[in-house]
């Protein structure tokens, strides 16, 4: 197959996949996405995009497996330990200087590990601060896990052992997050690229989500995040996601991976 015909067919696939999934792959970098789609098609025995699209429409199990493969929902509690230390020592103290109640959002929250880590941090180190946390994701399967709050040992590689004891109950099924943590966290289905955002957030974490987004999609998203923050609110990005040259959005770095909206 020539490169041109793959490329044309990819565009048709993107058009055909959008109505069913709500996921518009034109916002994602073509090279990486095409590679991921072709590797899935190969390993499941579909030689062409039209055959694969037909199978996705007919087989919900295949569709779920493919959606999971595309959205890459790997996460962990307290992923990137150093950033959580900065959050605790510098960022939250800055936020609560002027407010005793915080509104936080974990955008692209996967199975809930990130918003629950935020909740535990506030409960443990800032017990007099009231807060609410929103967790959103495009993948309904990860949101099911987030709502269930049940995790396996390997979700906790970066978690202080005393947190595991204090905020989870263990059983033969795994580790269940306690209701005292859960009650402050709400989950919602949302596509960051197309849906409207709430506003007035003190803090937004969007980490390891934009890796496959095009530069235009990232720019649009960071602009929407900035609008969703209150003046003085802070955006937390992933450990490879430096926002160089985005000062025009009105964000300035507080520390690596934390950006504050101007007052
Ligand atoms: C690698 S996980 C990151 C989870 C967590 N933020 C962390 O850093 O551990 C990326 C998540 O982004 C979600 N995602 C990808 N594209 C999205 C979109 N357009 N809207 C909302 N969520 C999206 C995926 O479903 C996945 O759960």
TrEMBL record:
The keyword Flavoprotein does not apply. Residues 1-263 form the CheR-type methyltransferase domain. One of its GO terms (biological process) is methylation. One of its GO terms (molecular function) is S-adenosylmethionine-dependent methyltransferase activity. InterPro entries: Bact_Chemotaxis_MeTrfase, CheR_C, CheR_MeTrfase, CheR_N, SAM-dependent_MTases_sf. Keywords: Methyltransferase, S-adenosyl-L-methionine, Transferase. It comes from the Bacteria. The keyword Methyltransferase applies. Pfam families: CheR (PF01739), CheR_N (PF03705). This is Methylase of chemotaxis methyl-accepting protein. It comes from Desulfosporosinus youngiae DSM 17734.
């Amino acid at each position: 197959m020539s490169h041109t015909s793959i490329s044309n067919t990819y565009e048709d696939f993107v058009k055909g996949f959008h109505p069913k999934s709500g996921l518009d792959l034109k916002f994602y970098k073509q090279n990486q996405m095409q590679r991921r789609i072709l590797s899935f098609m190969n390993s499941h025995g579909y030689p062409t995009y039209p055959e694969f699209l037909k199978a996705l429409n007919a087989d919900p199990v295949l569709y779920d497996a493919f959606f999971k493969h595309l959205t890459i929902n790997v996460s962990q509690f307290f992923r990137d330990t150093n950033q959580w230390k900065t959050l605790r020592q510098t960022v939250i103290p800055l936020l609560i200087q002027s407010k005793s109640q915080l509104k936080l959002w974990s955008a692209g929250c996967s199975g809930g590990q990130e918003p629950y880590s935020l909740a535990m941090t506030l409960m443990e180190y800032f017990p007099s601060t009231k807060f609410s946390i929103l967790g959103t994701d495009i993948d309904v399967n990860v949101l099911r896990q987030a709502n269930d709050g049940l995790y396996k040992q390997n979700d906790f590689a970066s978690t202080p052992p005393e947190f595991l004891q204090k905020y989870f109950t263990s059983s033969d099924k795994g580790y269940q997050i306690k209701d005292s943590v859960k009650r402050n966290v709400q989950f919602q289905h949302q596509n960051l690229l197309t849906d409207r955002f709430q506003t007035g957030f003190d803090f937004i974490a969007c980490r390891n989500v934009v890796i496959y987004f095009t530069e235009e999609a990232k720019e649009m998203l960071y602009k929407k995040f900035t609008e969703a923050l209150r003046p003085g609110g802070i955006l937390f990005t992933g450990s490879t996601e430096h926002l160089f040259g985005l000062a025009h959005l009105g964000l300035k770095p507080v520390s690596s991976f934390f950006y504050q909206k101007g007052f």
